[in-house]
Amino acid sequence: MPDAASQSEMTALDLESLAADFVALAMKAGASDAEAVVREGDEFSVNVRMGQVETLKESGSRGLGLRVFLGTRSSTTSTSDLTPEGIRQLVDGAMALAKVTEEDPNSGLPETGEFGSLARDLHLYYDDVYSLEGAERIEWARRAEAAALAADPRITNSDGGSFDASTGRKVLANSRGFVGSYRSSYAGVSAAPLAMDTNGTMQRDGWWSGARCFAHLESPEAVGAEAARRTLRRLGARRVTTQRVPIVFAPEVARSLIGSVFEAASGDSIWRSASFLAGKLGEQIAAASLTIVDDNTMLLPTGAGGFGTSPFDGEGLPSQRTVVVENGVLRNYLLNTYTARKLGMKSTHNASRGLAGTPGIGCGNLYLEPGILTPEQIISDVQAGFYVTSLMGFGVNVVTGDYSRGATGLWIENGQLTYAVEEVTVAGNLAEMLKNMTAIGNDLVFRGSVASPTLRIDGMTIAGA
Amino acid sequence: MNNPAASPRPSHKRYFFEKFGITDHMLERCLGEALAAGGDYADLYFESVTATSLGVDEQIVKSASQGTSAGCGIRVLSGERTGYAYTDNLSPERLLHAARTAALIASGPAKQTVQGFVEAPVADLYPVPLGGYDLDLAARLELILRADRAARAFDARIVQVRANYSEELKRILIAASDGAFASDTQPLCRLNVFVIAKEDANTTKGSAGGGGRAGLDQFSGSKSPESLAREAARGAILQLGAVPAPAGEMEVVLGPGWPGVLLHEAVGHGLEADFNRKKTSAFAGLIGQPVASSKVTVVDNGTIAGRRGSLNVDDEGSATQETVLIEGGVLRGYLTDKLSARLMGSANTGSGRRESYQCIPMPRMTNTYMLAGDDAPEDIIRSVQRGLYAVNFGGGQVDITNGKFVFSASEAYLIEDGKITAPVRDATLIGNGPEALKYVSMVGHDLKLDEGIGTCGKDGQSVPVGVGMPTIKLDKMTVGGTGR
After folding, report:
1. Contact B203 A242 (CB under 8 A)
2. Which pTM does this prediction carry?
3. CATH topology of domain B10-240
4. Residue B2 has what pLDDT?
5. Which end of chain A is more exposed for a tag (fewer CB within 10 A), N or C?
6. Are residues A159 and B431, on separate chains, in Cβ contact within 8 Å?
7. How much is the pLDDT for A84?
8. Is the separation of the CB atoms in B56 and B81 below 8 Å?
9. Domain A2-231: which topology?
10. Is B337 helix (H, G, I), strand (E, B) or coil?
11. In chain A, where the domains are located
12. Domain boundaries, chain B
């Protein structure tokens, strides 16, 4: 893709020295420590709806972020303006802002000697994501939608099929000698068909395939067919009465539960006591079959780096694998340097860093280790229950653990999936839900950086008609 | 309704011309390139944003940050197709390159010419002092420090307090091939307080915030740092004694103000024209049909002075307006942008919005609220045998195709025999958009708009919005708790 390539006139080396220059400028301006990030990226996306191109988007951008310290006072600035004037403002602005902040004894860069970047090839970048010609990219989007539309006469409308690709480069440099950079790539194909049943009620669902390497993508036809299957199974959905039955979470929704555990175990929630897991290190917090791992170094079975894999974290510490929960026991909090200091612990190298703001805490490849049961075995074991395939809303409170979300799925009767269910909620408390996980599937697949196999949880309440 | 004397404000335009060296000739050239492959319409959206934020945490001013970004998004329409490209480098070469990229959505000889620019007079809903707001950081720090002190003083059980102040100044300039030309300077600020309360083994959280498109003097009265801090602290303390929320269908009373998020989710998104043009919304084809009880009138109004969701012009350069969505229970209209208005043959409601220059505009809400009715709020509560009274909410979400929506109560109480009794723990409420408002049986006289904290997400784009509502009673709605 010549257009996107021409946006990236600078090489990795150029960007690394650019970042190092910003650090030097900040030090010259009087900072006691400084850290710079440079981000560069380009994107392409096309959406085809009812066989016609609907949107076509193509662009690139670049940004710069700076964090400065005056002892234990600190500030951050960011800009998209890489002219000398823009850079001067970035540095001067950061110095002026740092002076209005106050001493925070735990602030500061990691210690020299902690820094590092994994030397091995993590397979994060593949230049084939832009290998398709423009017309072929449109064709991929069209094929995904066409496969969905062709699957069944009840599929009557569509939000379209899409193909998108992007590449990016991240650079981090600081005044304690760390300079690192890496490139990453992504390509994706998706479809979102609508189906209508005999009484005119519409349902929509979708499916996608995403990969770092174009060659690893599923075919548009497979994606479209799966999108159609998911949409069709929603037809005829009804409500069920308010009751307490076993809930089986499909992998694509179970992953959000694992994400909630991560949020509750992350250092920022812990030091504030803003988590139902605060103070529970070493305690049994979940069923003994439950092991949750965050691995920022992982390769996928395809050989590509995981969606959450990186050579170093947002503060320049080498990526690592951290066991969060082991056989139900909370083993580690997820920490960056600041929260580690607050808790008197060591960083787990989970710092996340955008262009703006101070480092937060982010997961790498976060997953629940698979069990031995197939999803079919889990379902067949349920007399009456609810198989949840999508969740709605933000009703998760990690402080209290209270959990209440809108849910859609299929009713389980005598171990079989039956009719579709909608407009109900599933509710419980995460602390109890973790202990009431009574079955874990063997179907762990990484479709994103957070993944879980099928999960069964008992004791939750469905609210409905 | 607010309709101040309209006048063109050339200062916004001058900012881009002076700072980035943009000229009328350059704009025309870019639009010409954008239309060179046969597009029907093209527009340029220039944006320059400066954002500042300050945070106090554990009584320490821990964070201060500032960011600037500038860029231009170029859009070309050809029939129902949209081509889009953006650049953060505003040099003529880069702009022309982006124009040529977007142009490729069409194929053929140029058929449209660029019309002469006409800058229409627009309202001035959020006057910005000449030269922008001075960034008196000390005055802004004082706001968060006051909030911190007030939250700590509220109750000894408040163990953690965080307060953040954020402010942005967004300048935009829009030039379109149909001659539309607009510029605006949009201030937006917000003060937030987060607290943690602890008693024995119980830990709870509370938060409150306020803001809008106005200067620092807006942080008084119900939006003063002290009021917001007390509100956050009160919510957290209340939760310490909360009982499990009930589960199932029951009568639900929603308090005034922010619970209007119900309207945003239940009907607002479903009435955005793009979904209706494509017939992917549960509301498609329902214009003129009853979708709510006759007591319900809902409007979207982008013209209220100083509000978070208000805009002088939308992100396509069209003036914003008050649009009646539901009148006396009957569906009246959709929210449109240029593309959907043209394709649907309807009027443009000035609802084309985008998150930034990197995004394609689409129909969005501004400030969405239900008009007041006649009932006294006390009578509404008194009329309920057994139900839920919800006064504060977190976020919500909707599936616009089947109409199912949720919104999560963060402060709610049981109503027993006409009286408000125990506070309940967080619970999500769920309903069906085209049906839910048919059960509105009472509408209070106490219409209130929210304090200015709403952010709406659609297709990955976030924009600031407002909501509002009087106290209302729904004869039935499903409450997603765990109790009986």
Report:
1. no
2. 0.95
3. PmbA/TldD fold (3.30.2290)
4. 38
5. C
6. no
7. 86
8. no
9. PmbA/TldD fold (3.30.2290)
10. coil
11. 2-231, 237-465
12. 10-240, 247-480
